[in-house]
Amino acid sequence: MHPSFDCHIRRSADTAALLTTLHANRDEGFEPYLLAAWSPHLEAANTLSLTHLAQLLDEPLHARQQRTGRRPARPAWHCSVINHTGRVLSDEQWAALVKDIVAATGIEPGGDTAACRWVALRRGHHSVDLVANVIRQDGRWARIHQDTFHARSACDHYAGALTAQLTA
Fold first, then answer.
1. Sheet of 118-124: strands edge to edge?
2. pLDDT tens for residues 15-73?
3. Residues with Cβ < 8 Å from 150, sequence gap 6 or more?
4. 127: left (phi over 0), alpha (psi -120 to 50) or beta
5. What distance in Å separates the CA atoms of residue 24 and residue 65, rounded to the nearest whole number?
6. Contact 11, 77 (CB under 8 A)
7. 8 Å CB contact between 30 and 89
8. Rounded to 5°, angle at Cα 44 from 21 and 108
9. Contact, 120 vs 130, CB < 8 A?
């Protein structure tokens, strides 16, 4: 059995509440921070409040709700990734894994400028949380069928690549 990542996905009704919970449940002595996001401007300005971050993530949802008159029951998507490889990952390594996950799950397929809005939060030395809204920026639903399978596959692939680097 090779080193691995635990990868779990769940959905939530409230993006702001989800972000607040994730921020509160951090590793002892670790200050959570924004690792990556759909917009490079957010990565540079990682001092945003959780409320403002939730509002930015939910903008496509509100636009869709005004157009259709309905709100999806659980539009907030959360993917928790825990590192069990025995190797400490740099922010750049975590960011690469995050990009693989959002591409594989359909949150942000490669080159899609109207994809979902998402953020990755570091809240521990061995974990990262991805939060997204499943309503794309163009107002359509994201195609996230079998997202758990695809996220775990991306994590397994990345773990295999780390193992290959260690043995090379």
1. 4-12, 76-84, 127-133, 118-124, 33-37
2. 999 999 998 888 787 888 899 999 888 865 556 788 999 999 999 998 888 888 888 88
3. 104, 105, 106
4. beta
5. 29
6. yes
7. no
8. 65
9. yes
User: Does 1 score more than 50 pLDDT?
Assistant: no
Q: H-type helices in the chain, by residue range?
A: 15-24, 40-44, 50-68, 91-105, 147-167
Place of tokens 């921020």: 23
Q: What are phi and psi of 13, to 5 degrees?
A: -85, -25
Paired residues of 103 in beta bridges = none
Tokens of 71: 């709100």
Burial of 46 (0-12, 13-18, 19+ CB in 10 A): middle
Q: Which token pair is 9?
A: 């996905």
H or E, element range at 6: strand 4-12
Average pLDDT over residues 152-166: 86
- Angle (CA) 128-126-102 rounded to 5° is 30
Half-sphere exposure of 91 (CA within 13 A, CB side): 11
Torsion of CA 122, 126, 132, 36, to 10 degrees: 50
